[in-house]
Amino acid sequence: MTVTFSRPVTGVKASSFRYIGVIAGQSVDLPVTDTKVKNLLGTVTVAPASGSGTSGSTWRITFAKAVPTGTSFTLKLKAAGAGITDDIGNVLAADSQVLITG
Question: Does the pLDDT at position 51 exceed 80?
Answer without folding.
Answer: no
